[in-house]
Amino acid sequence: MSKKRSLGTVCIQGGWEPKNGEPRQLPIYQSTTFKYSTSEQMGRLFDLEESGYFYTRLANPTNDAVAAKICELEGGVAAMLTSSGQAANFYAVMNLCQAGDHIVSSGAIYGGTTNLFTVTIPKMGVECTLVNPDASEEELEKAFRPNTKALFAETIANPALTVLDIEKFAAVAHRHGVPLIVDNTFATPINCRPFEWGADIVTHSTTKYMDGHAATVGGCIVDSGNFDWEAHHDKFKGLTEPDESYHGIIYTQKFGKLAYITKATSQLMRDLGSIQSPQNAFLINIGLETLHLRMPRHCSSALAVAKYLKSREDVAWVSYPGLEGDKYYELAQKYMPGGTCGVISFGLKGGRQAAAEFMDKLKLCSIETHVADSRTAVLHPASHTHRQLNEEQLKEAGVDPSMIRFSLGLEDPEDIIEDIRQALED
Ligand SMILES: *Cc1c(COP(=O)(O)O)cnc(C)c1O
Fold first, then answer.
1. Measured from the CB, is residue 86 less than 6 Å from ligand 1?
2. pTM for the full predicted model
3. Residue 251, Cα to own-chain centre: how many angstroms?
């Protein structure tokens, strides 16, 4: 597979590469299992001695083709699909951790991930320290412990819209001998490729722009293959020492750069089972075919609406990293000069109450727990996605109580602006 083809071509032709006479469109391998003629060969598959499909929980050709497309888009070496973005982040972290370990994460992350890291994984014995992504390297360093196994952050935080200084985070992670895991859901590889800036592992909620049509919940983990697990042998024994559940296989020795994803698939997916369904992988692939065309439109509409809101007297503040003067404009220009994402946030001078009234009056834009859809969606994070967080956690997550999260769809921007105007004025 040529690494040189451009992203738009990969969106269309990556992953599934049919041979002579095979289906042009990615086939849906709607089968739990795969047939073999000798018992011997089946045994080798179970021992990871041979690669091949045998049970869809472990691998499926439709899923693999879509993972390969996302992998190529990100410039990684291996990838796996998961049933959701939550599963992707959970596996990405647990592939490196066990009870007694610790991770450091940016506090400006998706509310569901905050719960995962600060409520659920601690119950499994893995602690998480949240840090302010804008803190200095010295500040960030203080959060690290000898048992820290990963640093986590989002390229563009949902919904805080902070832009990550990826190089800064990568430097701090590497100084402490751990990989940087970046959730690249909002930027997508069309706008930012975190591996080029030092990130080691990328995760996605494919539910968002990759699907792009609110059809399918899904996730993906991509490995750059760049992190040297053996250089930190004792920290990552799960990868560098024998896995008893595979007769003592050592992932780094047997699979080299594919060690991390092979372990995630053959161990975590085998045991925890959050697989993507082939039907849904097919839908994600159709979404991916237009990702490079949709992202610029999401971004240009977001910029137009951000500028419109900024010009209004009744709007207290507007946050959009693509907007000149935004706190994150310079970082966005560095890491994603072609565009950021289609999500903006703003607050009305009337605060929480005005936000509710405004949202109820919208006609074209709808109230939804979703972003990155082809239809414009609006949400009040403090009352919805981040409802479980207390005031302090809201602050840490960068969520102002007045914040309205507005996800620009693909409708004509003039109609969206007119809908906002009437909801504010009429
Ligand atoms: C939505 C989202 C998730 C969770 O993904 P699901 O597919 O809903 O499980 C994780 N990270 C980010 C940045 C998200 O926006």
1. yes
2. 0.96
3. 25
How far is the centre of ligand 1, averaged over its atoms, from the C-alpha of 31 (Å)?
27
Ligand 1 pocket member 345 (CB < 6 A) = no
The DSSP letter of residue 363 is S
The answer to whether the CB of 341 falls within 8 A of the CB of 191 is yes
Give dist(CA 275, CA 57) in Å, integer.
6
- 3-class DSSP assignment, residue 182: strand
Give the span between the Cα atoms of 62 and 285, in whole angstroms.
9
Would you say the CB of residue 113 lies under 6 angstroms from ligand 1?
yes
Q: Which atom of ligand 1 is nearest to the CA of 89?
A: 10
The pLDDT profile of the chain, 426 residues, written as one tens digit per residue, is 445 799 999 999 999 999 999 999 999 999 999 999 999 998 888 888 888 899 999 999 999 999 999 999 999 999 999 999 999 999 999 999 999 999 999 999 998 999 999 999 999 999 999 999 999 999 999 999 999 999 999 999 998 999 999 999 999 999 999 999 999 999 999 999 999 999 999 999 999 999 999 999 999 999 999 999 999 999 999 999 999 999 899 999 999 999 999 999 999 999 999 999 999 999 999 999 999 999 999 999 999 999 999 999 999 999 999 999 999 999 999 999 999 999 999 999 998 889 999 999 999 999 998 899 999 999 998 888 778 778 888 887 778 888 999 999 999 999 999 999 999 998
What distance in Å separates the CA atoms of residue 349 and residue 363, rounded to the nearest whole number?
21
- CB within 8 A of 368, min separation 6: which ones? 214, 375, 377, 378, 379
Strands 377-379 and 404-407 turn out to be antiparallel
For residue 409 and ligand 1, the question of a CB distance below 6 A is answered with no
d(CA 45, CA 319): 51
Amino acid at position 201, single letter: I
Domains defined along the chain, listed by start: 7-286 (3.40.640.10), 292-425 (3.90.1150.10)
The values of phi and psi at residue 195, to 5°, are -60, -30
CB 291 within 8 A of CB 184: no
Task: Find where tokens 């006479």 sit.
Answer: 21
Degrees to nearest 5, angle at CA 187 with 185 and 132 = 80
